[in-house]
Structures
1.
Amino acid sequence: MNVAEWKKAPDHPVKVIQFGEGNFLRGFVDWMIHKMNEQNLFNGSVAVVQPLAKGLLPILESQNYTYTHYLKGIKNQEPVIEYYKNTALSVGINPYEDFESYLSLAHIETASIIVSNTTEAGIVFDSKDQLDMEASVTYPGKLTRLMYERYEAFKGDPDKGYIVLPCELIDNNADRLKEAVMAYIDLWNLGETFKTWVEKSNQFCNTLVDRIVPGYPKENIKTIWEELGYEDQLVVESEQFNLWVIQGNDKVQQAFPADEAGCQVLFVDDVTPYKVRKVRILNGAHTTLVPVAYLYGIETVLESVEDPQINQFLMKAIFDEIIPTLTLSKEALEIYAAEVILRFKNPFVKHYLMSISLNSMSKYQTRVLPSLLAYFDQNSKLPKRLVAALASYMVFYRGEYAGKKIAIVDNEDILKLYKDAWKQYDGSKTSLVDVVEAVLGYEPNWKGNLNHIPGLRDQVVNYVSIILDEGMENLIHAVEDED
Ligand SMILES: NC(=O)c1ccc[n+]([C@@H]2O[C@H](COP(=O)([O-])OP(=O)(O)OC[C@H]3O[C@@H](n4cnc5c(N)ncnc54)[C@H](O)[C@@H]3O)[C@@H](O)[C@H]2O)c1
Ligand SMILES: O=P(O)(O)OC[C@@H](O)[C@@H](O)[C@H](O)[C@H](O)CO
């Protein structure tokens, strides 16, 4: 079979405009839409907008906007692998190549839901974006332009506003997006009445997404193609677990009834507790694990939880150093953590530590540092494992360990910070102190100077010395022996 001959969705009208064509949206939101369509609960399709000039749209188009989605993991307490052909998408638009078609999306009456996943880097304001530009650089700039087109097309009709559901993993994602849209309205002088329409007739809903969607399964793609009988270039794999918490009312639930289709979608008044729980436990555990397990010689999350030493390190980090710092019910947190650990043990998913390591410095700041600081406040001492992870990052970001290169991906300023810091290292303790001080003192990342946390610098220096002189395994033992 040739993927180009695939038939796409039954002819559903476009109901969703989706900014982003990446793995996550295809394995999460588009899965929900496909499921709703199967059960006649939605009868809508997705128009995909490619947020960057380069992306996957040409491949999507060549496959008639369909792709295979594998779900692998524990479902109803049983290990289950299933796959299906997703037909939720109906059209793709690259606004950098066809701005007119992009704007025409605003005229589709049924297209009233906006979803996005433009990574943590996507929700930003850039005053260089201009109204008369064909395709603003930023996602909020593009969205503002689209909203303005809709406002004009429907003469400010209050019933034609959008429901905006961002998936970006940042605090109050919809509030941040709305702030950026408002800033563009001011920058481009789009007027008070448009501003009031955006404010009153559109619903920006903060959301929290949770599903592990590792990247394209390039390692075993040949086996997958053999099983499928066709060469799908956009196979997406995910776990079975899914949770989307949406801060939205009945109107939002009626417009997007994925909960009725068997997806775990909660419509709540406040996403904050769910977000804190997920970011600090699941993402915090990932970010704590990555450098420790990688320098220990492990490549995936599964191998990490199967290794007795790394597993013990991780369990103690979660249960002794992260959970006690959270204010939610301890019992509920422990239940959630147990479920997260089961998800890490998913035998079917190869989640590479290196893929989680992308932009780890900002991830440590948002996902782990709050636990470290709260632990210090509560106990007047530092959480050893979270500090050990920080020390491990110092070595990891050196870009080389035990004669092996490490392909770090992070912002330019972070790469330069580490390069400059390690350049002057001469093997002496004093120069190691300089490396650690330079990193801990980098306020743009930490939003403060971590050298001011009593004892942190010395503990990090000590741990880094152990890693460099004796290896990661010995650091893990040293941390255990301190108990
Ligand atoms: N993969 C997961 O398990 C998972 C789970 C929950 C949340 N997420 C979030 O998804 C993000 C990664 O998405 P993915 O896994 O689909 O990766 P991906 O690389 O497949 O897709 C990334 C998408 O973001 C867009 N993008 C990248 N930089 C951008 C920018 N500066 N401005 C606008 N758009 C930009 C790309 O065009 C692409 O559509 C992470 O930042 C994470 O917070 C991922
Ligand atoms: O996707 P990132 O790069 O923000 O973070 C890596 C993982 O922690 C993350 O993808 C989790 O698997 C996901 O957030 C689970 O819902």
Note: The chain has a mean pLDDT of 95.
2.
Amino acid sequence: MASFEVIGGNKLKGEIYPQGAKNEALQILCAVLLTAEPVTISNVPDIRDVNKLIELLGDMGVKVSRTAPDTYVFQADDVNLEYLQTEKFVEQGRAIRGSVMIVGPLLARFGEAKMPKPGGDKIGRRRLDTHFIGLEKLGAKFNYDTPDIFYSATAERLKGAYMLLDEASVTGTANILMAAVLAEGVTTIYNAACEPYVQQLCRMLIRMGAKISGTGSNLLVIEGVEKLGGTEHRMLPDMIEIGSFIGLAAMTGSEITIKNCQIPELGLIPDTFQRLGIKMEFRGDDIFIPEQDRYEVDTYIDGSILNISDHTWPGLTPDLLSVALVVATQAKGTVLIHQKMFESRLFFVDKLIDMGAQIILCDPHRATVIGLNKQIPLRGIRMTSPDIRAGVALLIAALSAEGKSIIDNVEQIDRGYQNIDGRLNALGAQIRRL
Ligand SMILES: CC(=O)N[C@H]1[C@@H](OP(=O)(O)OP(=O)(O)OC[C@H]2O[C@@H](n3ccc(=O)[nH]c3=O)[C@H](O)[C@@H]2O)O[C@H](CO)[C@@H](O)[C@@H]1O
Ligand SMILES: C=C(OP(=O)(O)O)C(=O)O
């Protein structure tokens, strides 16, 4: 288990480039299974979860070549389905959430798929009903009643269908979409997730020859085609990393320019941090955060307390609430953080309370944060990173804190943030990997 030793209290300064988007990468990589032709993917982040999925694809027989540090060519012309019976596959599938999205492409192209219960953050119940029910509507038969939670599915030829998803699941929509593009006839997915990750997947599939309308909306209509061809795809910058850097700048009172953000794709993210009082300027496609000694939380028009909550896209992503919460600890004012989607994602506030933050955990979904207005700095402590986003929120807290912090289990942070210690040290942070 690796740890970070963080000496807090330094102001950072400079430019930082966001990595390619983790959650987009996990979808796009699974989509290479839909064609026997080469697919070139660039702006691939060099992070644990993505590297694990690339390794899994390679072990399944997909030819993988890295043509530049962030660019890969994949060719799935000789997929070994027997690999899905091996213990190594089970281990790999269990290690990441993204592995669940091999099911749709495998069913569509080969008529069979297997997978263990996928991994990912332990941040609440993460059910897969939406995936399975959707794929069943396309004609797949699932066997998921196994004691070892190893699912298998078969389908002779998937057939298009109408479906109204019970929830707008991000990976569920991607999985069903990837199955529907090769199904016979028309599939309509209503209440589809429309996060930029899914939009990017739609664009890639269309370039491969798929017929999809409704990209960016919650109503996708897919006319199945016989086969798909190769393409080139470039990943968007990671919007969660961009939000994390905005929060980091505010907490540490630093002047940071976040380069090449594709600002129109960020939805409510900049606005949310602005409501927390953080000033920023859009300079072309860069976000400039000036040095600010203080920031003051907005209230609603009627003067009531600001509430920051998650929602399916185009609402605010749940993956940034931990960062918003940590930023609120040093703001002037009070904020209610309401994490609606996940029930175990706010428990990390006990570490922030140990650091001196004023937070009332109202219930598993809601925390009231009374900002310290930078009158009293947080103090460094030893803590463990429970999940990827809490991990980065604790890192931001430690960088702003007085004294030394140790953060254990930083593999959680490495799942989604590329060389985060090296990149932040280049801006003046003091982070040592132990
Ligand atoms: C690999 C990947 O892409 N992971 C992301 C993906 O996970 P993932 O696709 O697993 O998450 P889902 O979208 O399926 O669901 C997330 C949670 O929200 C709940 N839910 C979802 C939709 C809805 O309308 N109502 C509702 O309550 C679900 O029950 C679940 O607890 O999307 C999540 C939600 O943006 C993000 O946190 C994850 O980082
Ligand atoms: C929850 C997340 O990831 P995963 O779905 O891979 O666990 C995340 O990226 O914040």
Note: Residues 22-234 form a domain with the UDP-n-acetylglucosamine1-carboxyvinyl-transferase; Chain fold (CATH 3.65.10.10).
